[in-house]
């Protein structure tokens, strides 16, 4: 779902990575470093099935928003805890999927 021909897709992905890791540098598009921030595998694009780029946009919004950004980073830190341990990015994408499905099924208006 990530189009390598669309620079904005790569920029969003890199922004998410930098926000969560504190890195000042871009990372390769494919690699195990994506699993470290909560994607299921080495290609974050595979986790976007079902929501497409919307999942990435909403995750980035959550991390960058002035009101929610700190909460998002705190949830990310919790996701790294040895007993809590959950995939942060996949969780965010799944929340987007649930919202999109609810909208499609007329549970939201």
Automatic annotation (TrEMBL):
Domain ELMO: 8-109
Pfam hit, one: ELMO_CED12
Source species, domain of life: Eukaryota
Protein name: ELMO domain-containing protein
């Amino acid at each position: 779902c990530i189009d390598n021909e669309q620079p904005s897709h790569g920029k969003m992905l890199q922004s998410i990575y930098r926000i969560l890791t504190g890195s000042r540098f871009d990372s390769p598009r494919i690699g195990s470093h994506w699993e470290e921030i909560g994607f299921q595998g080495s290609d974050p694009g595979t986790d976007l099935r079902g929501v497409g780029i919307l999942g990435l946009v909403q995750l980035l919004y959550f991390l960058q928003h002035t009101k929610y950004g700190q909460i998002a980073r705190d949830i990310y830190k919790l996701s790294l805890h040895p007993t809590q341990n959950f995939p942060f990015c996949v969780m965010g994408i799944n929340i987007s999927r649930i919202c999109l499905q609810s909208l499609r099924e007329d549970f939201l208006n």
